[in-house]
Design goal:
Helices cover 46% and strands 9% of the residues. The protein is mostly helical. It folds into two domains: 8-117 and 224-244, no CATH class; 121-215, no CATH class. The strands form three sheets. A three-stranded antiparallel sheet has the order 4-3-5. It has a two-stranded parallel sheet with strand order 1-2. The chain has a two-stranded antiparallel ribbon with strand order 6-7. Strand 6 (197-199) and strand 7 (206-208) form a beta hairpin. Helix 5 (56-72) packs antiparallel against helix 6 and helix 6 packs across helix 7.
């Protein structure tokens, strides 16, 4: 998904419903932030919480507003106004523009990135577009570690995407573009298989370049499964209640 489309989505300019993104948000279970903080990285994509709020009614409203943003093309401003009105009625302060922007954009970027992943991994699409290229926003705000991936091409089934599928940090604007074999050849792109490398600033050693901490898994692969036996107990209980209600 290119940066222009991402901007349209986040600013409310894209009106058609992105079904895969909505499905991702609708499968999330709301949990208190204290529980969320204790979850291992691989489970965080299954849950939803917002720092500073513990009441499930409030957290559910946050999630509902994000789901409505996908359905109706809600803008960041409309999201903040809707949530601030609700919060003030419940005795809280309204959201600051910064806080609203952070919550909205991070969750929407992740939802649309997951939706894009599901579209790119459709068998018919994969048959024609077997290679994926990582792209940053290409400006001075791109993090150095993310820049290490910029323009690199890997097979769609490469293990690299288990670590480097965006978003790869708070406010990350990176995207992945699928390529055909003909495009790879015409553009003179080199297909790689190994993780990109970087210099460890503390030791001077060459190590694998990694995304920001807590963003080193593929959010599209953290899908809910009926067998919850391997989930942490707190998350398992919440998910069991969540899906009984559906």
């Amino acid at each position: 998904m290119d940066e222009r489309i991402v901007k349209e989505i986040l600013d409310g300019g894209k009106k058609e419903v992105f079904a895969e993104a909505l499905d991702y948000l609708e499968k999330k279970a709301v949990i208190p932030f204290e529980v969320f903080k204790e979850l291992e990285e691989q489970y965080r994509q299954l849950a939803f919480s917002v720092s500073g709020y513990s009441r499930l009614e409030v957290l559910n409203r946050f999630l509902e507003e994000l789901q409505n943003a996908v359905k109706e093309g809600t803008t960041v401003r409309e999201f903040r106004e809707n949530m601030s009105r609700f919060l003030e009625e419940e005795g809280y302060d309204g959201l600051t523009p910064y806080h609203a922007d952070m919550i909205f954009r991070q969750n929407m970027q992740t939802a649309y990135s997951v939706g894009h992943y599901r579209q790119m991994t459709d068998p018919d699409v994969l048959e024609r577009r077997k290679y994926w290229q990582y792209q940053t926003a290409g400006d001075s705000h791109v993090r150095e570690t993310h820049m290490a991936m910029d323009g690199r091409v890997f097979p769609a089934d490469s293990k690299v995407w288990d670590t480097w599928y965006p978003p790869n940090g708070f406010g990350c604007r990176c995207t992945v573009v699928s390529r055909t074999e003909e495009q790879v050849k015409r553009m003179g792109l080199q297909v790689e298989n190994d993780m990109p490398k970087a210099v460890d600033l503390e030791t001077g050693e060459i190590v694998d370049a990694l995304p920001d901490p807590k963003f080193r898994t593929n959010p599209a692969k953290a899908e809910w499964k009926p067998d919850l036996s391997g989930y942490p107990k707190a998350l398992r209980n919440i998910f069991e209640d969540h899906y009984k209600a559906k």
